[in-house]
Queue: 4 jobs
Job 1
Amino acid sequence: MARIDLEHIRHAYGAKPKSENDYALKEVHHEWNDGGAYALLGPSGCGKTTLLNIISGLINPSEGRILFDGKDVTHLSTQDRNIAQVFQFPVIYDTMTVYDNLAFPLRNRHVPETEVDRRVKEIIEMIGLGGWAGKKAQGLTADQKQKISLGRGLVRSDVSAILFDEPLTVIDPEMKWVLRSQIKRLHKQFGFTMVYVTHDQTEALTFADKVVVMYDGQIVQIGTPAELFERPRHTFVGYFIGSPGMNVLPAKIDGSTATIGDETIALNFRPEIKSGAKTELGIRPEFVAIGREGMPVAISKVEDIGRHKIVRARFADQLISIILDEDGEIPAEPRIAFDQKAINIYADSWRVGGEA
Amino acid sequence: MEKTWNNKAWFMVLPVLVLVAFSAVIPLMTVVNYSVQDTFGNNEFFWAGTDWYVDVLTSDRFWDALTRNLIFSAIILAIEIPLGIIIALNMPKKGLGVPVCLVLMALPLLIPWNVVGTIWQVFGRVDIGLLGHTLEMLGVNYNYVQNPIDAWVTLIVMDVWHWTSLVVLLCYAGLVSIPDAYYQAAKIDGASRWSVFRYIQLPKMKRVLLIAFLLRFMDSFMIYTEPFVVTGGGPGNSTTFLSIDLVKMAIGQFDLGPAAALSIIYFLIILLLSWIFYTVMTTSDAQS
């Protein structure tokens, strides 16, 4: 187990990056605490897999240093870094049995056979493949194959960290829950440092203590699930987290009031905004109340998704989503009000002012 | 799944059946026809039964040629399959090297058999050939026209030059289909170079290797053109393979009956051996 420091890491796949845009990974400077469970969340192509591969040593960063427990490992090979990594698609050794697959990483490191046997038997029970030890890995289902991949990651007790690269993509939904809670339990039990890449926000939020949101090659916010929900630092985090995402409405900010179209909204703080910045007001659909008082809206559609209803409406010529309780009523002349505490103000997409 | 019976479906297969009938079945049957009859010319045929088959199977000439064929195929497979794998493993996976290597590899395959034979026939000549002359200058006693060993070496080197590319290309196709994640996982699992080959690359190449093995076996077992051009079956009978013997018998001596019987036997041997190889290689696959 180790603390991992990333010092000013940048990476470009091309040979000679000229501008900032040539970097697949813009500057990342971050520290992963020993024993922490982190989720790297972001859309496809945002650089999260690149960052993961830099940590595991499959990619050498163009710039910057990586430290494990204070020791520089930037130029060490993957083997020497002692990292376990689970990939998106199950990687198994077809010709080996389930048992040999799990024993492979240990035998390669010349672990004594009695120890191998003990570890493998433990892991095989843990991943629920108890009766399958002697089976060839070839004929297994995708679920089982991915469990073996997971098992090969977990079998080494001395790893510095375990990295997961969207490991549950190919798994059936109900199985996902089972595996995710197993990983979580193992994390609690052994306390290894864990970095989990995903583009599924539910997965990230349920899994991790800290979620790292990446967008366009950079980290836009690191926070607990609650922080990401209530105080998104960047409008992208607002959109990306939550279902539906945050309403981001262009607004004029004047002192402690915001103006959207003809409507004026009072704020409980006074954002400081540089002149010329593009200003927006962000409010989550959960914090928009619909009723007889407030600002007029035109309802365009109501989606009933079971637990609650999602109301799509036009407000001041903008599209807005509102979450309404399952038994909530929409009056004949609907009006909406924003929960003042939940309003975030953005200047050029970054959050300004207010308490954190 | 419920299968619907559709009589009209036969019409779809008919063109292929007709084509195969004309290209394979009918010629084969005429050979069967010759093999059970005797003739003294004038298009008069007499029933001979299995006489020709007995003749062929009891002649030393047949068994000698068959032995030569088996040895030749065994040597060819033992050299070309491992060599093909090694070259494929060392080919570049991306960049400008890929098309360059692929074109270089494909070149020998594009040359017609008889031209390959002619190239090596000239190349190996002691008086004017680059190879033969160079070897003589170096003091190596090399003469494929007189020395049976030299004739064999020439034929084998020629076949390796001509056909290893096929094995390489097939293996390469198998190798590039392996996702990067396998190599990355192997690195993380601390696998050695040998383990990567043994547990990742070889299993993924298994299917194409089966095809390569069968193709190279059948082709080398049927070899005719190159030895005909280079050695003409000599010196003596040392490079007289079944195919060369067959042509001597059919066209040289005009013994249609024995030649036809030999053709059928030859055909059945290839069929049988290919079937055995295929079964052995695929059942070991299914057991795993």
Note: The two ends of chain A are 32 Å apart (CA to CA).
Job 2
Amino acid sequence: MNQKSVTSMQRVLTTLGHREPDRVPVFFLFTLHGAKEVGLPIKTYFSDPDNVVEGQMRLLAKYRHDCIYSFFYAPVEIAAFGGEVIFTDDGPPNSGEPVIKTTGDIKNLAVPDVKNTPCLEMVLTATQRLKERVKDAVPIIGVVMSPFSLPVMQMGFDRYFDLMLEKPDLFAHLMKVNQAFCVEWANAQLAAGATAICYFDPISSTTITTREMYLKTGFTIAGQTLAKINGPTATHMASGRCLPIIDDIAATGTAAVGVSCHEDMALIKSVCRGKLSVIGNLNGIEMCRWSSEDAENHVKEVIAKAGAGGGFILSDNHGEIPFQVPDDVLMAISEAVHTWGRYPLDWTAGK
Amino acid sequence: MTDKLVDAFTRALLDVDRLAAKQIVQNRGHDTSPVKFAEDVVLPALERIGAGWQAGTLALSQVYMAGRICEDLIDQILPPEDPDRKNQPKMAICILSDHHKLGKIMVCSLLRASGFDLADYGVMEVDDLVEQVQKDNIDILLISVLMLPSALKIKTVKQKLAHLGCDVKLIVGGAPFRFDDRLWKTVGADAMCRDASDAVSVIENMMKGMV
């Protein structure tokens, strides 16, 4: 394929079809850098969908990457459930005190009305306006937290583990509420113009739960939920490991998986080949102190391990680039993908 | 014999079998003090589980449940204020700037299950933390974080404590430190823990330097 004639959408669809496009697609999953780009504090930036549209468009042009990320921040879903969002000047907004404090709170938890919740409406408006700008040339990636992973923000990690392991009836009720919300939220984003939905599910990773527990919980929930989402999905482990459950993840009906920098990409790719596309796995935390040379070396290494045959999108391992990652490192990553990611990857022969 | 006991205790913890774990504690024999049992059996079992998590063969849910079970069991035979608790420096633990408590809970469980005691400050911001540490005359401060910006604030904690002349050792832990093994030095910490079970050996090493 001639690189100039290929749109990002064509490039991404080709790789998702497990074929080699003109070059390895690269997803910079930017949220906070948009604020930096338009010169606004993070809280102000996310207060108006037009800021996010402008930020995403500038980032697309600057770094020549292959997606729009319509994701604002994870606690937007917590805000929809009535929770608090805490903004900081130099990092992603955080969720405040858990919205679920007692078992009674779970029983009374209502499914938020997606179309009448201001914080969600802003994301939908941004998605619509981004779609008007990029049309079908660039995929727009919407985001949902999986029903199985959302409770970490709803009630805290420790009490969620206790619930999952010791109170199966209440756990089932919470999953029912979260599933209904997740499906409606994903489908609203698709209707607004998102091309695909990234289903963040770190609690299903083997870093957090055992495969045995996953098969009884996160796996079943993902299968049921993804089946009701009216578009393609990618499952992201947000830095968690997933090698032992790759076949299970594929069986949930997802098209791709976002993997941890703590896993061997060559091994992951060999297990995923033909079944799941792989997204990853640059270390976003380390990226804060990389030199341009480090960036190029890491890009070359991951392409050499996972690029052959398509089915691969280069990205960070967490699903969000930290605010502290300098622009010159991001530029070096982009340059390296444009230089070393061109198919065929002859330079990787023998590596 | 101890190895077999550690094997059995580890198995009980991984199976979340509280009864089996309790039985092993109760059958420890009259000549084994609670502190000795914690050192010889409980801590090695928790260290094995922590190492399994680091290696990717065990899950965080298993580490968490193991710590909780051990904390309950040890509290029964060695209450928090028991004079048999180890001679130790004044220690405190906190979460800096976010509401993710799991790491702190696991470290608390593990240290208490290993015979240590420490103050739990909960969620703190920089200035309040510095003030509290100075007021309590803390020797070792453990800080748990989930988010990178919270980790970076530790540098300010260190600077403010130094400015006040507080000789406090900082031990840090949490996700950002596991993804960048140089970050703990960048923020001015004295040590980092890759998982909760690291805390005991890190503190014991620090105590040797304090003598």
Note: Chain B has a mean pLDDT of 89.
Job 3
Amino acid sequence: MAQLKIEQGSTSHSAYNLRPSFSDVEERHTLAVLVENEPGVLARVIGLFSGRGYNIESLTVAEIDHTGHRSRITIVTTGTPQVIAQIKAQLGRIVPVHEVHDLTEEGRSVERELALFKVRGQGDKRVEALRLADIFRASVVDTTLESFVFEITGTPEKIDAFADLMRPLGLVEVARTGVAALSRGAA
Amino acid sequence: MDGQMTGAKMVVQALKDQGVDVVFGYPGGAVLPIYDEIHQQNDIHHVLVRHEQGAVHAAEGYARSTGKPGVAIVTSGPGATNAVTGLTDALMDSIPIIVISGQAPTFMIGTDAFQEADTVGITRPCTKHNWLIKDTDRLANTLHEAFHVAMSGRPGPVLVDIPKDVQFATGGYVQRTDMKTHYAPPTLGDAASIEQLVTAIETSERPVLYTGGGVINSGPEASRLLREFVAETNMPITSTLMGLGAYPASGERWLGMLGMHGLYEANMAMHGSDLMICLGARFDDRITGRVDAFSPGSTKAHIDIDPSSINKVIRADIPIVGDIAMVLAEVLRVWRERGSKTADHSAWLDQIAKWKAKNCLRYTDSKTTIKPQYALQRLEALTKDRDRYITTEVGQHQMWAAQFLGFEEPNRWMTSGGLGTMGYGFPASVGVQMAHPDSLVINVAGEASWLMNMQEMGTAVQYRLPVKQFILNNERLGMVRQWQELLHNSRYSQSWSEALPDFVKLAEAFGAKGILCKDPADLDDAIMEMLDYDGPVIFDCLVEKHENCFPMIPSGKPHNEMLIGEVATEQAIEAGGAVLV
């Protein structure tokens, strides 16, 4: 091939995943997928992720338009830019999928998650838990003499931070909804 | 006002309205109402297969050879699970087929009823889309939508699962023209990218066209435009296994198939090109070999109707999402409008001529044993001027057929590419023959693949389908054996065919004709005897048992490190390549 001045391929010996032209930095993306609200549509989306080996960090789904039969699935996923692009393209070709939006790429967006925390304790720990909950603007939705259930809304990071603080104070159970997200601005 | 009718009648009515003339199927408890309707009409011809897998492959053969959707009807439970291989095969090769399955009645779904299976759950990952119908009023629209989804965008298999009570119940029929769907994938390529592609063609010194099944799927117009495009630009052209026939094998710029068992000149041209234009192909691992060393010096344009094919494996510099025929028409229009000329690539064509001169398909012939390559050369010589359709099974014989048979037109070569389904070829040949009753249909087979769906001899004989089963019998699982020779020190674990039937007697037992041939001197006469016989034939061609299929790019190697001819294969595959299939 010398006469054609062509560079030889790289010299690595593994044949898998040698894609030098693609970045291998993992990114976290939040995707909003608008789907027809029909049986099996969530199974199609989840099956796509498991079948092709993509990651799901969080997934939420609910009907958003009853008369229009639309549901919104919010998926937080991680992957290289190439994998993220594949995920979007693969989602886009599922027949009952109407729109796929990459909220991470399409400008600024707001992300919120709701969580319930059950914290058990007495004395100082109980007082401290209540004080911290106040700082985090978590509200008490259930209480006994030795426990609280806090409701907190915020970014996943804020909820993680609250969980870290509650753990030494008697955290016994957590329920999180996963992320719901919308783009900022009028559009 | 739409007519009221039963769900079962709707199925037959919708098939008629969709222009279906043949369906392949097998009755059972959950589809009895549909079969009762089929019995009471004469517009749709039902072909009774001997196994549901055969029905789906036959529908594939019908679809691949006509460009029209193929239809199969199966019962619930085992009927549906037997359809899974065919559905997956059609999904991998983007073949439009509609499978209609029966289901337990809606009020029994979920109770583990007799012959109940979660058919939409099982077939979700192996269909383009599927539906479970719980309301007869929605059945007709869904059936029309099923055809629409199967045929639009990147084609593929769909399945409609119909519970038995929905077949009995009455509902409103929806005309084909009133069908409601939101599914409308884009087909027209981006104008700026098309301009960019034309500029790239004008300046390229070493261009190559790499075409695939997408050209065939796009329809005859795509093949016509492709030929025009090649004539206009004088570009050398290669194709995947799936794309053979889009450009004629006798064409001046034809390089032959590329990839693992592709031709040396095709792979070297891919490796050495400065502009590669991929038309409707998907950079399968059989094509690329080692991806980081794949066509390292080229600008890559990728035209495909499926956005998820682009940048999946190989990064495209010029990505164009669109239908091949529409994009090609637009490229040609821009090319002519701009008065474009190609750069001088005579040095490139000279180089390709030198690669061709290597004669990479050479093999050592024998006077005493039939070499499989020789058998295919003779088959080609004796049939190429006929109105001929070829199907294949999967393995060495399939690769040799792709190398040694020439295809002048699209839809003449029907092979299981992506999934590599042994047992596909025979039922596919049944489907092809149903679509083309007066044409010559040959299934090039290996004995091991052929046995996997040999029950379809009953179908061929019942419907007087003169399909020719050309079996290259090496009494081995030839490709498995070749890989064991390459990778596992010739330890031939389970790769021979013990206790084979006497194929001549087998043919006769089914009421067909059997021909045995083992002497190269008798081969031409035997092939002529097969061609002259008006009816199904099993041709048992005993061939060299340990022939290897070359050329070959060993797993994990780039295109310019091919093995050619009868070379030493020891250590050809390194540790890194051994994990690849």
Note: Residues 52-66 of chain B form the longest helix (15 residues).
Job 4
Amino acid sequence: MGDIISLIISGIANGSAYALLALGIVIIFRSTDTVNFAIGDTGTLATFAALSAIAAGVPIAAAFFLAIAVAGVVGIAAERLLIRPLGHGQHLLFVALVITIGLGLVMQAGMGAFWGNTPKPFPPLVPGWIQVAGVAISLNKIAATVFALIAMGFVAWFFGYMPFGIAMRASAEDPLAARMLGLNTGRIASIAWFLGCGLAAIAMFFLAAESSLNPHIAHSPLFRAFAGVFLGGLTSMPGAVIGGFAIGVLDNIAGHYISANYRDTIVFTVIVVVLFVRPAGFLGSIRKERV
Amino acid sequence: MLDMTSAPPALAAEGVTHRYGGVLALDGVSVQIGTGQFVSVLGSNGAGKSTLAMVLAGLLAPSSGTVRAGGHAVASRGHGGPIAGVSLVPEGRRLFGQLSVRENLLLGGFGAGASGRETRRRLDEVLASLPKALRDDPGRAAATLSGGEQQMLAIGRAIMAQPRTLIIDEPSMGLAPVLINQVYEWLSRLHADGVTILLMEQMATHAVRHSDMMVILDRGRVVYAGSPQGDAASAALISGYIGEEAL
């Protein structure tokens, strides 16, 4: 029993980065109908920028906010230059998806060329460790978990109750109708990409401190974040965060009780079973339409 | 071109032409909508009514010509944008189906720049004017409403902007007669409250009964603009819907 509790606690801590990434993915998807595969690399790029700033003497807390700003601006630029010119439509979802995959690969190559491919040590935002139910957890992971939970609460409130958040959902559903009402769909898209990519920067900032920073660090977390998104529901922001945490816990349990070699297999088998029973994920909703 | 009032018209199109690629949708349309008027633009399918609605609402920049609101030019070749004080209920309603009734209404006020408090005040007011099914369950997704409920919600959403001019495109499309009556009753109440109404309709019966001016479009051109009553109006209606050869 003690094992399970400690595995869950450390799994939640591990899953915080997946949860933040998943939330970023869902914000962008729900606001602009685009699945952004470059979101992890955007966060990595911003974390490299923060590393250069730290090396130049910028305090780590300031570098943290710099990373968020850099990722946000890169996100806005990507949306304006690569996604917005495509227009809107169901068939463009796949075009945009391929474009963001390509953008991510270009970013990785660019980061490798500029900062090199060898892993670089990265300082934690909050150094130190604490014992939770007998498990030693880094304060860095605790901070990431707290950020993920605060972000989830804020985003759920913002999109559920604030007019601008509701306008973001409306804009994703029908941008022309949104413009007819006087809503500025271009500004809505920019804010969504800023928020989504900013959250990715937070995730990568915490992940880099847990291991080290390299241009390909986002691969595995992005894979798990997408799993979390589908597990929680592509349309649900709280679902994405819960899905991200659930992936962290599943990952831990599979690694401990079965084999570390079969972690991915076990995690994704469970997801397939869940999606078979609930195709929209735990908290996602199937589109309801009167016929 | 007909000018019914001495005050600057609420909306005016001056020599407006619009092309979709090689297809001419509007061909030199000039029309004035006087402040406080109830104007119907009639015509068969493909006459250019929806294009004119979009152009007059500022949502489609004309290929040539000018749109004026209150005497000021607001849209001309290549330049457009939603016109302050003008709300459009588009053909097919274009509600946000996955958003609730309340959220759809709220966006009508928010998009027009109303403050949060003002939007909430308007929301209560507009909800009170909607059918009971909508009032009782404002959390219901718009996509699950019936056609009549959706049309009422679309009008309510437009009213949330407190427009001086309401453009409504094909309000009777797909509705049962009893629901069409409800829609027209609401439009009449809005007109009585001082809102200028510009109606784009294929079904002439209701439109003619409520309007004080009628415009008939045929293949993108104005073939009649004037009183909806009298022999000239009847002849124009027959010509516009059935063709010159029918006369």
Note: Chain B has a mean pLDDT of 86.
